[in-house]
Amino acid sequence: MSTAASARDSHAPTTQRQDPKGGLAGVSNWIDERSGAAKGVRFLMKKVFPDHWSFMLGEVALYSFIILLITGTFLTFWFVPSMGHTTYNGSYVPLQGIQMSEAFASTLDISFDIRGGLLIRQLHHWAALLFVVSIMMHMFRVFFTGAFRKPREINWVIGTLLFMLAIIEGFMGYSLPDDLLSGTGIRAMQGFILSTPIVGTYISYGLFGGGFPGEMIIPRFYSLHILLIPAIMVALLAAHLILLVVHKHTQYPGPGRTDKNVVGFPLMPVYMAKAGGFFFIVFGITALISSLVGINAIWAYGPYEPTQVTAGSQPDWYMGFADGALRLLPGFLEFVALGHTWSMNIFPGSIALLPIFFGMIAIYPWIENWVTGDKREHHVLDRPRNAPTRTAIGVGFAVFYAVLMFAAGNDIMAIKLHMSINDITYLFRFLVIFGPIIAFWVTKRICLSLQRHDRDLVLHGRESGRIVRTPEGRFFEAHEELDEFTRWRLVGYEAQAPSNIDTSGLEGKELKKAKRRNRWTNFYFRDRIAPVTPAELEAAHHHGDHDELEAAVLEDAKSDEFVGELHGGSKETGQR
Fold first, then answer.
1. Which residues on adjacent β-strands are paired with residue 251?
2. Calpha distance 128→285 (Å, rounded)
3. What pLDDT sits at residue 29?
4. What number of CA atoms fall less than 13 Å from residue 355's CA on the CB side?
5. Which residues are CB-neighbours of 194 under 8 A, at least 6 positions away?
6. Which helix (H) or strand (E) holds 468?
7. What is the C-alpha to C-alpha distance for residues 461 and 475, in angstroms, rounded to an integer?
8. Crossing angle of the two packed helices 272-292 and 56-76, in degrees rounded to 10
9. Residue 241 carries which DSSP code?
10. If you write DSSP's letter for every residue of 127-184 in order, what string do you get?
11. Which long-range contacts (CB under 8 A, 24 or more apart) does 201-210 make?
12. According to the UniProt record, where is the region Disordered (predicted)?
């Protein structure tokens, strides 16, 4: 009987328990049952992130990119990517009846006839500038703190590619309106392409669809600007954020922070709220700037004409380094060989500079890894002063970039300062070679000095500004001991020593490689200040530079009975 009942029960239809939840919870449960996304979302929401103001630089870049996508979508509704000729009859009276391209005419319509169009145009341009500068500052933060080390080398390369693509995307973006200024930039770009040895002419004809200017460059730039490059950048950003979660976020040194943990707050609800608020702050500030400060007033330049050149034309600041490199190259570098003209007075500073510049940035993590021989994972950041050689290299590289950028304005400087443009050019040529070297040496000396100051601060304490006189008439300044948190920040790092390769038994190429690597390692670690060890700290507390009498006086100074003369004749007592 029981067996038959069991058989009936096994084939009887089961009643599914209805989920009483509705609304958003019900929708979430429905999605999870069909996608299994709850586990991943739960893991992400509990992800811990450290808290430091410098981490916001990357967030600014992300939020600026979101603003670019939103405003760019708005602009595509009215922009006409065509170089076909038309006669302007819009609202801007000074240009009425002028022949121009449809791209320029549609940009004028967006600026003067579309409600809110000018604000969106300026918001798009300012967000682009903010995007590039925030990427640059974020990469500086990553470089100077050593956040590019294992296992984040791939993320460093992704950031470098994003930086380079942002520059290219920006150039294409401000070239689309086809005004006289942007047309001059495209004409310069075509000249750079022509300087490419042997294949420059073919590349130019293929890109422009014939001779300059043709009618294909604006439509092709438009396709690259709104489709291909943004898609690549979105994919790179997604990979960047995924690797950020996989590797866990880096953190600054402090008590309890190691390479095996992360001290901070979970993504939900703390960082979700902070990130949302910070996005609107970035959006609001960018909108405020766009409302009050005009930029790229194309109507002041007029439509592009190949026979005209804008006087004093300059690219946006992030392309200035290439223009500056071009101006500093001497003309005698051009020569004829093998039946071709080799324009080495143009090609290295225009076409070759970009891949070389960003290629050197991209491969630096492997260079430092080879020099230091450090194969470990690093999740705790360095203070820039504790890696003096790396910091000096970064500052030297920044000076090199800045000199090239300012060199792009040598003609404007000559006019405004009433100086010879040749003298200014010679000055920049000197600075582009010796400026980074001087910056490297000065920066390294500053870092070492700061390390020595930190070491002295840990061993002897903070200067209190209180002068104490002993019964024998001796004067000295009383020092206050550091609290544990401050002391940890000053001693919680590892000063690597040169890990030289043993060259005994090596011959030929292997011996040369080992000697070369040892030379670079000694260069990297030749000047270093070791952190204070616990034994040194203990010895400083008992057998420091001050003798036992000073220690006794300081101990008495903490009691209410102490009355001592201070420098200047005033008195200090324990009673107030």
1. 380
2. 14
3. 80
4. 4
5. 200, 201, 204, 343
6. strand 462-469
7. 17
8. 60
9. H
10. HHHHHHHHHHHHHHHHHHHTTTSTT-HHHHHHHHHHHHHHHHHHHHHHHTT-BHHHHH
11. none
12. 1-25
DSSP 238: H
- The CA distance from 123 to 119, in Å, is 6
Q: Which sign, positive or negative, has the C-alpha torsion 288, 291, 295, 296?
A: positive
Q: Read off the tokens for 388.
A: 């003096």
Q: What is the pLDDT of residue 19?
A: 52
pLDDT at res. 99:
92
Note the pLDDT tens digit of each residue in 249-260: 899 887 788 888
What's the CA gap between 408 and 417, in Å, rounded? 15
Q: Round to whole Å and give the CA distance between 467 and 382.
A: 36
User: Which residues of the chain, if any, have pLDDT below 50?
Assistant: 1-2, 4-8, 10, 15, 20, 544-549, 553-554, 557-576
For the segment 302-358, what is each residue's pLDDT rounded down to a tens digit? Answer: 999 888 877 777 788 888 888 899 899 888 888 888 887 888 888 888 888 889 999
Contact 26, 36 (CB under 8 A): no
Residue 12: how many CB atoms within 10 A of its CB? Answer: 8
Q: Which amino acid is at 242?
A: I
Distance between CA atoms of residues 29 and 200, nearest Å: 59
User: Taking each helix axis from N to C terminus, what angle separates 421-460 and 320-328, rounded to the nearest 10 degrees?
Assistant: 120
Tokens linked to 402: 């800045």
> Which positions ≥6 away from 108 have C-beta within 8 Å?
88, 90, 92, 95, 298, 299
- pLDDT on residue 48: 83
Give per-residue burial for 132-156: e unless 16+ CB within 10 Å, then b. bbbbbebbbbbbbbbbbbeebbebb
Model confidence pLDDT, tens digit, residues 171-216: 999 899 999 988 888 888 898 898 888 888 899 999 888 888 888 9
> Which amino acid type is present at position 146?
G
pLDDT at 268: 82
Q: What is the pLDDT of residue 21?
A: 56
